[in-house]
Design a protein that fits this description.
In chain A, 75% of the residues lie in helices and 0% in strands. Chain A has 280 residues and is mainly alpha-helical. In chain B, strands 6-7-8-3-9-10 form a six-stranded mixed β-sheet, with helices on both faces. A five-stranded antiparallel β-sheet of chain B has the order 13-17-14-15-16, with no helix packed on it. The chains are: A mainly alpha (280), B alpha+beta (346).
């Protein structure tokens, strides 16, 4: 607010036009999905942009999706894979970031570089080898396979962000703790982790969305009935000749809800961290 | 045997020899102050005692135990940092009780210790606040509180008052002195401020370039400094040091020093042992500092405790009692015997 007042009104308007345009572009597909999920099939095709009214309103999509019965399973799979992967990304990422930023050991730079390469090279390039490993480990069609791959996928970025953040935590805090007879594990868990909360929230948000939305690895590593994720499950409504748009749009709408909840949860932490740093 | 003993302690940063074989014996209950110009290694030495820097040579003994290579957690020391280093996500109470809670001390005992320390440090009203909501002085008191609840064998202070403003610094200094008198704990205190050193210390350790220049009580250092560096480092404004040829009867001394308060101005230049013209007068109210140019750009500062009647540009003489002269040889070392000879001659 203070910033806005200090600037010229024209600038404020220009900034808001840009922001609103971007918001519109970003929200439009979500809006279309949401609106059409509550319309009959005919109405979707006749006027895709129209809001549902008394004539066109229909929950047939949701009924179909929920009656398919395995929808809860799909949700459960997605949620399980995402949450477990996130947990380990954050735990291992924070530990490695802490080690890289705090301890001097041979090969530290090399290890840091190796992790940085992971940010630059997409993990999908290694799909064939990953599949081979998963087959060799007898993990095909398991959620474990997905979780392992997602942890590997999320770690480099997590380490990068957390390492940067942790190296800014004043070293006196760790030294004070060491003088206070606090063990290294306790320093990590009761001082470093709580202080790194804003960075952890950032990592969580950045890592969570690609995992939840991923279609690639579920399709390759875990396409079986019992291990399908939401994104993969939705594909059953998309046929070669006929696509059940009601069901597709309804399931997409439902799929947004958990990720939205997780986002709200983490972003609270995010904002808390940001304001805490601002008023030092 | 000394309570805390440093024996030939060394520190290397690569090829750089930062601490050059320091020997020091500290008795139980003593308040020791490390003082010296920036970069002299006083903080490094303290951090080596704390175990935050490795010791590359020599030995460190505490209470008869060799702790040269022990991690800081096993040394039974507590340190107070210049930047306070309070845990920002914990309240004052949690900060002070953190170490005890981890050590699985009984909650009632923790509570009692914390409330006792808080009372002593005037923090009782702030126990539930986070450090963010405290002033600098209060934060520093919390840091001290965190140290005293653990009842360590040795307290280490690393320039604890440097981040405080002048008024608060004076006040906190007095509090630390009081606290030490009450607790009687062995304390090592690092500062670059000689007033803190003089007022707090039982013994002062003057460091320069990673070596001890002199160890002694504050007044010992003031009255009989071991060398020119200590003589000029202790005392404000610093001791005047002149080439020996300005004086008579200096034996083999190379330079002669005299403190500003031991000089007396005379209106008649002929009455003085030294002569010059006044270049600057600093009237501070309780005292007046008169800068006198002796010619060839040798400046001398004279301290007067009464208001001066002199004017800038006056030619004046300077009187002194030869008893108060300090003699230094070519290496800057004090020559004690000359003092007596010269004093007797006058």
């Amino acid at each position: 607010m203070i910033l806005a007042k200090a600037k010229q009104p024209f600038n404020v308007i220009a900034v808001h036009i840009v922001l609103l345009t971007y918001t519109f572009i970003a929200l439009f597909p979500v809006f279309i999905i949401l609106v059409n999920a509550f319309k009959s099939r005919k109405a979707i095709f006749n006027s895709p942009l129209a809001l549902p009214n008394a004539d066109t309103f229909s929950t047939i999509g949701f009924e179909k999706v929920l009656s398919k019965a395995d929808f809860l399973l799909l949700f459960g799979n997605s949620l399980l894979v995402t949450v477990v992967s996130l947990f380990f990304i954050i735990l291992f990422g924070a530990m490695l970031a802490w080690a890289l930023s705090e301890y001097k050991f041979t090969g530290r730079t090399l290890l840091g570089l190796f992790m940085a390469i992971g940010i630059m090279i997409p993990i999908r390039l290694g799909t064939v080898s990953i599949l081979e490993i998963v087959v060799a480990l007898n993990l095909v069609n398991t959620r474990t396979a997905l979780i392992l791959v997602y942890i590997a996928q999320g770690l480099p970025m997590a380490i990068f962000i957390l390492n940067e953040y942790m190296s800014q935590i004043p070293k006196e805090l760790k030294e004070a703790a060491r003088c206070d007879d606090v063990s290294e594990y306790q320093i990590f868990f009761s001082i470093i982790l709580p202080l790194a909360r804003p960075a952890i929230a950032t990592v969580a948000v950045f890592s969570m969305i690609p995992i939840w939305n991923d279609l690639w690895f579920p399709l390759i590593l875990a396409p079986g009935e019992s291990t399908r994720t939401v994104t993969l499950g939705i594909q059953q409504f998309i046929g070669q000749f006929v696509t059940d748009w009601n069901a597709v749009l309804a399931s997409l709408t439902l799929a947004v809800i958990p990720i939205l909840l997780l986002y709200v949860f983490f972003s609270k932490q995010l904002i808390r961290g940001l304001t805490a740093g601002a008023v030092k | 045997m000394a309570f805390l003993a440093l024996k030939g302690v060394e520190k290397f940063y690569g090829k750089l020899r930062a601490i050059k074989g320091v020997d020091l014996a500290i008795e139980k209950g003593e308040f020791i102050v490390f003082v010296g110009p920036s970069g002299c290694g006083k903080s490094t030495l303290l951090r080596m005692i704390a175990g935050l820097e490795t010791i590359n040579g020599g030995k460190l003994m505490l209470d008869g135990k060799d702790i040269t290579d022990a991690p800081s957690s096993q040394r039974d020391l507590a340190m107070v940092f210049q930047s306070y280093a309070l845990y920002p996500h914990m309240t004052v109470e949690e900060n002070m009780s953190f170490a005890l809670r981890l050590a699985k001390v009984a909650p009632e005992v923790i509570k009692e210790k914390v409330s006792k320390a808080a009372e002593k440090l005037n923090l009782t009203a702030y126990l539930q606040r986070t450090p963010k909501a405290l002033s600098g002085g209060q934060r520093q008191r919390v840091a001290i509180g965190r140290a005293i609840v653990r009842q360590p064998k040795v307290f280490l202070f690393d320039e604890p008052l440097s981040n405080l403003d002048a008024a608060l610094r004076g006040q906190t200094r007095v509090e630390i002195a009081k606290l030490h008198r009450e607790l009687g704990a062995t304390t090592i205190y690092v500062t670059h401020d000689q007033v803190e050193a003089m007022t707090l210390a039982d013994r002062v350790v003057v460091l320069r370039d990673g070596m001890i220049e002199q160890v002694g009580t504050p007044l010992e250092l003031y009255d009989s400094p071991a060398n020119r560096f200590v003589a000029q480092f202790i005392g404000m404004p610093q001791m005047n040091v002149l080439p020996a040829n300005q004086f008579s009867q200096t034996g083999n001394a190379d330079e002669v020093g005299i403190r500003p308060e031991h000089l007396v101005l005379t209106h008649d230049p002929q009455l003085g042992k030294l002569r010059g013209t006044i270049e600057l007068i600093e009237a501070l109210g309780n005292e007046t500092l008169v800068h006198v140019n002796l010619g060839n750009n040798t400046l001398l500062i004279v301290r007067q405790y009464e208001r001066t009647t002199h004017q800038v540009g006056d030619a004046v003489g300077i009187q002194f009692d030869p008893q108060h002269l300090h003699y230094f040889d070519a290496n800057g070392k004090s020559i004690i015997s000359i003092t007596k000879v010269a004093g007797a001659a006058a």
